[in-house]
Amino acid sequence: xxxxxxxxxxxxxxxxxxxxxxxxxxxxxxxxxxxxxxxxxxxxxxxxxxxxxxxxxxxxxxxxxxxxxxxxxxxxxxxxxxxxxxxxxxxxxxxxxxxxxxxxxxxxxxxxxxxxxxxxxxxxxxxxxxxxxxxxxxxxxxxxxxxxxxxxxxxxxxxxxxxxxxxxxxxxxxxxxxxxxxxxxxxxxxxxxxxxxxxxxxxxxxxxxxxxxxxxxxxxxxxxxxxxxxxxxxxxxxxxxxxxxxxxxxxxxxxxxxxxxxxxxxxxxxxxxxxxxxxxxxxxxxxxxxxxxxxxxx
Amino acid sequence: xxxxxxxxxxxxxxxxxxxxxxxxxxxxxxxxxxxxxxxxxxxxxxxxxxxxxxxxxxxxxxxxxxxxxxxxxxxxxxxxxxxxxxxxxxxxxxxxxxxxxxxxxxxxxxxxxxxxxxxxxxxxxxxxxxxxxxxxxxxxxxxxxxxxxxxxxxxxxxxxxxxxxxxxxxxxxxxxxxxxxxxxxxxxxxxxxxxxxxxxxxxxxxxxxxxxxxxxxxxxxxxxxxxxxxxxxxxxxxxxxxxxxxxxxxxxxxxxxxxxxxxxxxxxxxxxxxxxxxxxxxxxxxxxxxxxxxxxxxxxxxxxxxxxxxxxxxxxxxxxxxxxxxxxxxxxxxxxxxxxxxxxxxxxxxxxxxxxxxxxxxxxxxxxxxxxxxxxxxxxxxxxxxxxxxxxxxxxxxxxxxxxxxxxxxxxxxxxxxxxxxxxxxxxxxxxxxxxxxxxxxxxxxxxxxxxxxxxxxxxxxxxxxxxxxxxxxxxxxxxxxxxxxxxxxxxxxxxxxxxxxxxxxxxxxxxxxxxxxxxxxxxxxxxxxxxxxxxxxxxxxxxxxxxxxxxxxxxxxxxxx
Lengths: 298, 562
Known about the structure:
Helix content of chain A is 70%, strand content 0%. In chain A, helix 1 crosses helix 11 and helix 1 runs parallel beside helix 12. Chain A has one domain. Chain A contains 13 helices and no strands. Chain A is mostly helical. Chain A is globular and about 65 Å long. By secondary structure, chain B is an alpha/beta fold. Chain B has 3 domains: 137 residues, Rossmann fold, CATH 3.40.50; 105 residues, no CATH class; 245 residues, Cytochrome-c3 Hydrogenase, chain B (Orthogonal Bundle). In chain B, 41% of the residues lie in helices and 15% in strands. Chain B contains 21 helices and 15 strands. Chain B starts with 10 loop residues before the first helix and ends in a 10-residue tail after the last helix. At the A-B interface, helix 2, helix 5, helix 10 and helix 13 of A face helix 1, helix 2, helix 7, strand 9 and helix 12 of B.
């Protein structure tokens, strides 16, 4: 039952997100557009490139989707509405997200084409740059909650949300989440103006539909993670807990989609440099500050 | 279409059986979500005053994502070949929409033909929708086969390049399996987008490519097999040694070119264009990549102008003016003016101050529109969607605007400039990118002025914005704007010379007039010089920086003389 509800919530969020995305790019609000576009993908030819690595090519979109859903499995919508309330939930998210990289590399390698492959390797090149900024802020969050259980983490923010308690961690995690989901302006692996679609370039038809669905699901999962870790999860007045979770998640997801529209793509070297020289020291500082706060403030 | 096992049965056909009930719905959905790939490019559609998005078509940059091939205007020969390759890469069901031009012979019949106007485009899109909704699956399953797609495959020995034959086999000298490669085709169209491949149209199975060197799938993966006819493929064939036994890494990489860091890497030659998002359509940029660093690059045009006599010698003066204007879709007013001026001077027609002012106004209006078009193009390249939307809207508003209307648009231009100054990441992206080497010669227009400043992409951006403001000031003083039209020259003869500062820099035309006909002419344009800068700008740069550098030159491949 929980599984069905969470999956339904995930799907609904993805749909709303797709509608919003279409609204901002075309200026028209078309609620049926995502469904139509999904159907249209089913009708299109699903081209297999010449001499592909067939296993990688076929697996990548599916793996991507699975990873995004897996991540959502440990994120609570309400105190009891979570698929798996693991004792190591916060760590599990990390482990699941690590496979995004694997999926992207496979999608880059599989089609046997230059643009896709450069896109895949680019993503790998950034691995530690953004992955550290996912792990280190989560560490600070877990320190405050004194637990890795996601429901406990939300519970720890009852009096004060983490976005206020550790704003630095929130900013770093938000940026790293966008880089991980390769949303613009961090869309280096799929950059149209640089790689003509990159890792997406060779996918058509139903495979492309899965790939697009997976990317949107990943955005929702990451937005949900931000909600759980920093925005107090289900906490909020009047509305039922699950509604607050959904509202916050959607707000974060939409902001992740919108911000790229108003910014040029970041230079690959800059992203790497800023993550290493600025992001990681700041994340360490965040851990220290939170550590001191946890010890000093009762 | 028989030998490629994966593609013999189209996805559409298979689904026809599987989802018989869904078919109607899928067809309708297909018709409702149309995306188009514009050939030569979105910047040409904009320059013709077309708002493709408003007509209900989503613009995409890659053939794999496109359902409609939108051809705008007449395409030069080489571009029609490129269009055929792009069409072959599009997933079925696919359609062709031709606006105001000849239907290229290399393509199947167009599904819709219309004039070059917004209303015609909207109407044709609707027709296309209806046709797709009714017959998406029936009509689309015909095979498309064009001569340009059929690359001849030959087989060579990796060890002995002199051993070449038409059938697979083993080398008579060393017994190794022969490796397939595309036989000497350098027409430019065939290797356009290698990994988009001419796959499903190919009559040859390339599987044995991998079979030849089982230990080296990595090298095969880097795209050589797609571009096997370039020298890269031949140079690297050396790897295949170790199919015969162990070779150390040092030996394997011995003959490979060295990167800047001294490591021997696999280099791949990747084409960008002639239709690539963010680059002007018709420009074919070929970059040799070492990882994502560019070791070498060259640019050439597939849509360039002929210089001097184009065979049939004598053209009526009016025809000459029209020809020149239509050959340069990104700056037609400038070149129309250039032709008019040169012919009138050759005929000895006196300059008329009122006409000159009206023409100057039209020229400046085109300059603003052209710079906005470049901004929209940069937005596409940089993934800066807001900029593309805003600049396109302004460009469409300015193109045919009267003087009063233009002056009203001044605050909007100013706001755009202010916004760009405040946009985070933009300066980091452009500053220091595409710095012209000291002492570059042949610079003209905004590129030349910006070279006196920092000489980078950031300086060029601001130079173009400054020019737009200056152009508006000129327009304020010119009065009514008038498109250049050739004045009556009768049957005059003579020699004339004219120069016009086009949006991309100075263009010069010398021509000889005989009895009202243009006998011979010589043209010199800014882009012909600027295209030579590409090699130096991209060398040693990261791929993204290299492409931004090329984009910042605002090359118009139409204005490159071939």
